[in-house]
Amino acid sequence: MSRLLFALAALLTLAACGGDEPPATPDPAAPPQTADASAAAPPAFDGPPAEITLTPVGETMAYEQTEFTVQPGQTVRLTFRNTATNATMNHNVVVLAAGADANAVGQAAMEAVATDYIPEAMADQILAHTAMAAPGETVTVEFTAPAAGDYTYICTFPGHFMMMKGVMRVAAA
Ligand SMILES: [Cu+2]
Known about the structure:
Elements: H1 2-17, E1 50-54, E2 67-70, E3 75-81, E4 94-96, H2 102-111, E5 126-129, E6 138-144, E7 149-154, E8 165-170
Parallel strand pairs: 1-3, 2-8
Antiparallel strand pairs: 3-6, 4-5, 4-7, 7-8
Bound molecules: copper (II) ion (CU).
């Protein structure tokens, strides 16, 4: 009996080890990691998340809230309620990394139709982004606030970024 159990155990071990999982090697096709914020990682934050809600100004290409403040390392729940009714007024919120070139990201986004106007080649310049919200839709993204500083956010729907922007201020309370 014990011999049978031993054989069974050996078989199971073999099965477990003999899987065709390839060794973990970095996948060259994997998308680049977002936010090169590792250089300035925020300190651990011990507190409730920041609940931030943005809306557009009527049927225009502008955010009602052009700035908000969160704390370094704080969890940010960023919600965008697209209160527009004009069918052409799609919007999103794209929070840019420190030192990102908002114009370059906005320009590249215009070509990024397949990825909902998020330019994947510029992922290292994007901290976080919501999905694109059609009029009447609400979208949310959750992320960790980076180190203290000012971070621009823009809407990357084609043509909007020059007008539709704001600043996320990260500062210790
Ligand atoms: Cu927009």
